[in-house]
Amino acid sequence: MSKIGTISNTKSTLDKHDFYIKKKFGQNFLVDQNILKKIVEIPTITKDTLVVEIGPGLGSLTEHLINKSKHVLSYEIDKDLVSILEETFSNEELTIINKDFLKSDIDSDIKALKMNYDNVVMVSNLPYYITTPIIFKIIEESTLIKEMVLMTQLEVAQRLTSKPSTKDYNSLSIAIQYKTKALIAMKVPRNVFIPAPNVDSAIVKLNIIDNIVKKPISEKLFYEIVRASFGQRRKTLVNNLHSKYNIPKTELIDILVEANLNPKARAESLSVSDFIDLSDILYSYK
Ligand code: SAM
Q1: I need a surface site. Which of 125, 136, 174, 202 has the fewest CB within 10 A?
Q2: What is the pLDDT of residue 3?
Q3: What does pTM read for this prediction?
């Protein structure tokens, strides 16, 4: 029997602790046991897995993660929630770091646990106001986390997983799909949270690609070109790149032809691989 993630348990915990929900921290607590059970079936978790969770809240997802894994390491910014979590869970099953996740050093926190584990996965019902910086932080800074199963706004989940020439495809889609295999595992309606958010949600699964087959010469330039290319969505690639780099348009057309791209193309028609080719040609040009 669950101790936490139901409507009545959540309401009584909030009452008992005189806790008011803080919108500024993106607090929407999961209160549906069926959804919680489904979420923890998505990642690869065994009794030898270390799970990292951002924002355990009142611990509804944490409880399920603890039951399946070796240990959970969690980051919670709200100290009022930390004291509730400490009453609910033991130190053996859960380590809580009372900190803004964006200011953390993930891999050193994991190493500081001095624990043996088979794999490290991140599972989290994210605070939506910082979804993108959180995902980028993990991808850029952690070498230990290989899989992420994250609740995000449905719209963001669609961006992360969208394909070229679709309306949701943008610079975030390309950056994520360069480093991970991304898919939507499940859609989640708004009525399974307290309070209900104004948007629908989805669970995305991101698996870090271990050996990226095709890499740009400079990742920094690749990301910069991707962002610049989507600068103004209605403009062609040539116009967006011209605004960013001030390279004459005639030369940009030659560059696109060299990259086997249509000189009239817009950014949304290019694949990750096309952007890598373009970035490498511009790298030599600059
Ligand atoms: N996991 C809980 C659940 O599913 O019911 C709560 C999820 S709620 C959407 C997001 C949680 O992230 C809240 O507990 C909030 O306090 C916490 N949070 C917000 N910003 C944070 C940050 N920068 N670092 C760590 N935790 C944060």
Answers
A1: 136
A2: 67
A3: 0.91
